[in-house]
Write a structure and sequence with these properties.
The chain is mostly helical and 293 residues long. It contains 15 helices and no strands. It has a single domain, classed as MetI-like fold (Orthogonal Bundle).
């Protein structure tokens, strides 16, 4: 904060600081405090709010523990989000390494532009494009039928469709942090490892990945959190057997009319996601300051 005042002076620095504090209070603290308040209070008619029954309790949160179906969907969402992060990393790491270490400036600019342009379109429209692609009579089935790989159209909707849609939707959140981290790696380190006889696998395991672990952790955190909180992809590409926990929260709010229970479910998801992220950063030995860079 001191750097802000040194750079912009007392008056302008105070204005910028005040704007940041207002933004944090209005967009971060207030919504979360309201969600906690709703989660700990019962769902009552307007006439009963503030009465004897309007007391704080953990009943809405404990309700999740007693619902076997909701609890199973909750844990499935967590591990599936981790799987999305892993698949996205597997897809993005070779691309990021090639862009940072082997591609020419023109190739890098062209590839990054080609990856970025589709994201100028709304997420709903991009997911609908996947909906068309994976449709029973869509281009994917038509191509596979023409090649002869399948004999009849396949229903791709479900867990596979949701995973594919999410990997595509969040690929840039994994690619850019890894690319930025690998770009700072001196090529001479890789060349030295090759001269010493290290295999390609050993070079990546001992040189590249340790150097880029902050970028990898950042990408995994972003991708995991976005996947766990996603609603569009599961709603459009999922099937009855592949429900996401966010769909349960949506149903409590807009179909069940129980905002308090929906807030409790959202709070549980938020807390567990934060725990998973912090544990992951701890195991990877990466600080939050490294992720924030």
């Amino acid at each position: 904060m001191g750097d802000v005042f040194k750079r912009f002076g007392g008056g302008l620095g105070t204005v910028f600081t005040a704007l940041v504090l207002v933004w944090l209070a209005g967009m971060v603290l207030a919504p979360n405090i309201t969600m906690i308040d709703y989660a700990l209070r019962p769902n009552l008619p307007p006439s009963a709010i503030g009465g004897d029954q309007d007391v704080y309790s953990l009943s809405n949160i404990l309700y999740l523990a007693g619902e076997d179906v909701h609890r199973a969907i909750f844990f499935k969402t967590i591990w599936a989000s981790a799987l999305v992060a892993f698949i996205t990393f597997v897809v993005c790491y070779p691309i990021a390494y090639w862009l940072a270490q082997n591609a020419t400036p023109n190739q890098t600019a062209l590839v990054l532009l080609a990856l970025t342009i589709p994201f100028w379109i709304n997420e709903v429209l991009r997911t609908l494009a996947w909906y068309i692609l994976l449709a029973f009579r869509g281009p994917l089935n038509e191509a596979l039928l023409a090649i002869g790989i399948i004999d009849a159209p396949v229903r791709w909707f479900g867990d596979a469709g949701v995973l594919a849609g999410m990997v595509y939707a969040y690929i840039l959140f994994m690619l850019f942090p890894i690319y930025n981290a690998i770009e700072s790696l001196e090529k001479s380190q890789v060349e030295a490892a090759k001269d010493l006889g290290a295999s390609t696998w050993r070079i990546h395991a001992r040189v590249v990945i340790p150097h880029a672990k902050a970028g990898i952790a950042t990408g995994c955190v972003f991708t995991f959190m976005l996947a766990a909180g996603s609603y569009v992809a599961p709603a459009l590409l999922g099937a009855p057997g592949s429900r996401w926990f966010t769909q349960i929260i949506y149903n409590w709010f807009f179909e069940g009319g129980n905002w308090n229970r929906g807030a409790a479910y959202a709070l549980v998801l938020l807390v567990l996601c934060l725990v998973v992220v912090l544990v992951t950063l701890k195991l990877a030995r990466v600080n939050l300051t490294d992720v924030a860079k």
